[in-house]
Amino acid sequence: MEEQDKILNDVTQGDYKYGFVTDIETDIIEKGLNEDVIRLISAKKGEPEFMLKFRLDAFKKWQKMKMPNWAYLKIPPIDLQAISYYAAPKKGPKYESMDEVDPELIDTFNKLGIPLEEQKHLAGVAVDVVMDSVSVKTTFKDTLAEKGIIFCSFSEAVEEHPDLIKKYLGQAVPVADNYFAALNSAVFSDGSFCYIPKGVRCPMELSTYFRINAANTGQFERTLIVADDDSYVSYLEGCTAPMRDENQLHAAVVEIITMDRAEVKYSTVQNWYPGDKNGKGGIYNFVTKRGICRGESSKISWTQVETGSAITWKYPSCILMGDNSVGEFNSVAVTNNYQQADTGSKMIHIGKNTKSTIISKGISAGKSDNSYRGLVKVMPKATGSRNFSQCDSLLLNDTCGAHTFPYIEVGNKSSVVEHEATTSKIGEDQIFYCNQRGIDTETAIGMIVNGYAKEVLNKLPMEFAVEAQKLLQISLEGSVG
Amino acid sequence: MLSIKNLYASVEGMEILKGINLEIKPGEVHAIMGPNGSGKSTLASVLAGKEDYEITAGEITFLGEDLLDKSPELRAKEGLFLSFQYPVEIPGVPMVNFLKTSVNEHRKHKGLKELTAGEFLKLMREKMDLVDMHTKLTNRMVNEGFSGGEKKKNEIFQMAMLEPKLAILDETDSGLDIDALRVVANGVNALKSPETAAIVVTHYQRLLDYIVPDYVHILYKGKIVKTAGKELALELEEKGYDWIKSDNEK
């Protein structure tokens, strides 16, 4: 037993690889949140009137809202006046050629494995890189433009495609949807925009990489993906942050809209700094992700591997409006040390014969708490609809917790909703079996956990899956008690 | 090769092994028989290093070194193999990956180069013939959905891949039909050499028709109460364990 505890401690104290800070001149506005700050952000970005209106409207509504407290999370008070709402690496705002990019920045993203130079890039992945409040570089823009695909920073989209933004912004996540979405709508500074025109299959993976660098700031980015009739895109999102003792707030919004027969796959590997082993520091991650399958037979699938953040509050959801539309949610959420996660999905069936699947694999270690929370709602008119949910929890010791909060509402008699749930502790017999074959406990746990999460990992694009497997190994190995 | 001296072991405060003495030399096959609850599986688990058992007295040396000091994985890499009575399932982990990791851990320990995927598959095909394993088994997850017989064959297959110096077969015959029994026994016999040894833990004589032991030990209430040649197994088959019990009950 002692030996295992020792391994446990060694490994769970493994360092967060991405915890460095880039020393780069940053333009940060005064801390605090009020109408002037919102006007300032909008002015700094040179936004058109409709955007300012959108922000002010959100802010007004947000002021009347309260922080949600229904999640199974202990959230320390967050002083929103102590945060700066805009931080941008200077010399920006956007680099057209590599020569203009600050070498510090290139170096930073090389260290993170996200080279900004296109020729060095993973073949077939276009990246929009967001550091603190702004997008610093989007690769492969021209290649994509040839197919009519728009992939650019949100700011650029506001400038160059205001009609599209006006039409779709806030459609999936209305400004007053919830406290954090409203806050994001008021102060968001950048993010990615993607439009896939009718009948186009996007030839490469699109990706946004988020990096928090500056201290005492929050990151509030916004992603909007619109897939027109018969189009397809696979979208990846990655994120990291420096190690700091203070907590930092990240409140993002992602909106996806699919038209007739369009399909969007959205994959996330969330690796924000989780805090140290005593629970000090780490990112508070409050994210609203929602997609609307507006067209018939359209499909949205969310796949997430959540290993980072001190607190995760996130429910990627699908509103299945179009008849025969399909929603999927596949999740692996890992918590260790003092991390807390309350995550899951909402599937709202509105159209006829709509289908949804929820696969959630929670893995808890240390003194962490890991909750699945999900809603499956079938409206009366959504006849012939189906949902299958499977929520599994794996506990690595006796000091962590796993919880499941499923909500099911079915409004008609021809629909079928299934829910399966299991909770298990990692088997000491399994570990011993591996040991007896010469495999040490660390490697054994990595193998067992990856096996457990396999169903979800298999849904990730290849390069991402490898990354995610390594991440699981780092986050958890040896956490058996 | 293996020397057990005056070994006492208990689990959750209950003493199960009460003074075991056993000497095993290279090239030998030892059968350990005995009624249920006599401590046979405990002995196998203690040798492999399962944590649940506390060694309260005695010593074990393996290849001249103290065995009890070593972690289970180190014992394995130094050539001690346990064929489990109940091989555990590991969902989502392909047998091929599991075994490749295992083989390469063994090779690293010996200072050998790790096998490439190609070399590994070649080795695997060779060894599969030995135990009549089907590719469909190695393509599945570790023991997941295997029948009782398939699990046991899989243990012998892993043994063939790892080429241990000392193999401990913990009731490998239980739950096997006669054909599977023969396959398993052939596998074990094919691996016999003057440098390797085996401990065969079993209830029944029938496995010993195929794997012929040099010695048969009877374990009863945590002690070896009788040791003889292979004819002892036949005697047990005929008379049952009652005469052992009455001899040792005072």
From TrEMBL, chain A:
Coiled coil: none annotated. InterPro entries: Fe-S_cluster_assembly_SufBD, SUF_FeS_clus_asmbl_SufB, SUF_FeS_clus_asmbl_SufBD_core, SUF_FeS_clus_asmbl_SufBD_sf, SufBD_N. Pfam families: SUFBD_core, SufBD_N. GO terms for biological process: iron-sulfur cluster assembly. Residues 127-202 form the SUF system FeS cluster assembly SufBD N-terminal domain. Residues 210-451 form the SUF system FeS cluster assembly SufBD core domain. NCBIfam families: PRK11814.1 (NF008773), sufB (TIGR01980). Belongs to the iron-sulfur cluster assembly SufBD family. This is Fe-S cluster assembly protein SufB. It comes from Draconibacterium aestuarii.
UniProtKB/TrEMBL annotation, chain B:
Keywords: ATP-binding, Nucleotide-binding. The keyword Nucleotide-binding applies. The keyword Cell cycle does not apply. It holds the Pfam family ABC_tran. It comes from the Bacteria. GO terms for molecular function: ATP binding; ATP hydrolysis activity. Residues 2-246 form the ABC transporter domain. Belongs to the ABC transporter superfamily. Ycf16 family. This is Fe-S cluster assembly ATPase SufC.
